[in-house]
Amino acid sequence: MPFTVVVWNVHKERDALERELAEVAARPDLVLLQEAIGPDIGPLTAQGQATQAVSFRFVREGGMTGVATWSRGPALDLSPRRTESRDLYGTPKSALLSTHPLAGGQRLLAVNVHGINLRRADLLARQLRSVEAAVAEHVGPVVVAGDFNTWSRRRFAVVEAFSRRLGLMRVFTGPDAPKLDAVFVRGLEVEHARVIETRHSDHDALVVVLRVPGTDQSSI
After folding, report:
1. How many other C-beta atoms can be found within 10 angstroms of the C-beta atom of residue 161?
2. What is the CATH number of the domain that holds 167?
3. What does pTM read for this prediction?
4. Mean pLDDT across the stretch 124-140?
5. What is the span of the domain harbouring residue 123?
6. Which residues of 138-147 are buried (b: 16+ CB within 10 A; e: fewer)?
7. Is residue 21 part of a domain?
8. Looking at residue 94, what is its pLDDT?
9. Alpha helices, DSSP H only, in the chain?
């Protein structure tokens, strides 16, 4: 069976999950969120396991925000990363690496990234270098996804160079591809990919259906 991955910057809006997630994907297997508030991610919490890599305290909601990764089954390994540099608002950014068992015996590495924003492109490059060795060394399928904040040519070039070094394939390409968000894969086939416009976030949700090549047992 293939597995479904959702990638979405929810813009610190709990309603994005409570009211829209079921419309985005009825039964996801892996959800990579950016700007999630706390590890409690609404309707998914009771159906699997969520982990958060904290960036900072969000005053309006009184909780911690950062990237959050949810999976239908428990992760085998978790490794949070947080930037030493901060954006112009004094906020660091975070990434979360998690390893998940696949039904065929392989292990999937998922890297959930929120790229440092409103700063020089070299600081984004430094952030990506903090996860590069883990991706390079992983034996098995890989998904690297999130909000990379690629609003300039230099920042886009940094992410492209990172993906080339690691042999990653960009899923969404062309003029209609998201400008800030991206999904990269290695060792996986893309069965279906779509961008879904959302109401409660200023980012679209990305939904990708994947399978391990040469097997029908890919589900997480």
Report:
1. 12
2. 3.60.10.10
3. 0.93
4. 97
5. 3-211
6. bebbbbbbbb
7. yes
8. 93
9. 14-15, 21-24, 121-137, 153-165
Q: What is the number of domains present in the chain?
A: 1
Is residue 216 included in any domain, yes or no?
A: no
**For residue 123, is pLDDT > 90?**
yes
**In 3-state terms, what secondary structure has residue 22?**
helix
Contacts of 4 (CB under 8 A, 6+ apart): 25, 27, 28, 29, 30, 207, 208, 209, 210
CA distance 148 to 115: 4
Rounded to whole angstroms, the Cα distance separating 31 from 16 reads 13
In a domain, 218, yes or no: no
Considering the domain boundaries, does residue 219 fall inside one? no
Residue among 43, 90, 91 at smallest CA distance from 67: 91
AA identity, residue 165: R
Query: How much of the chain, in percent, has pLDDT values that exceed 90?
Result: 61
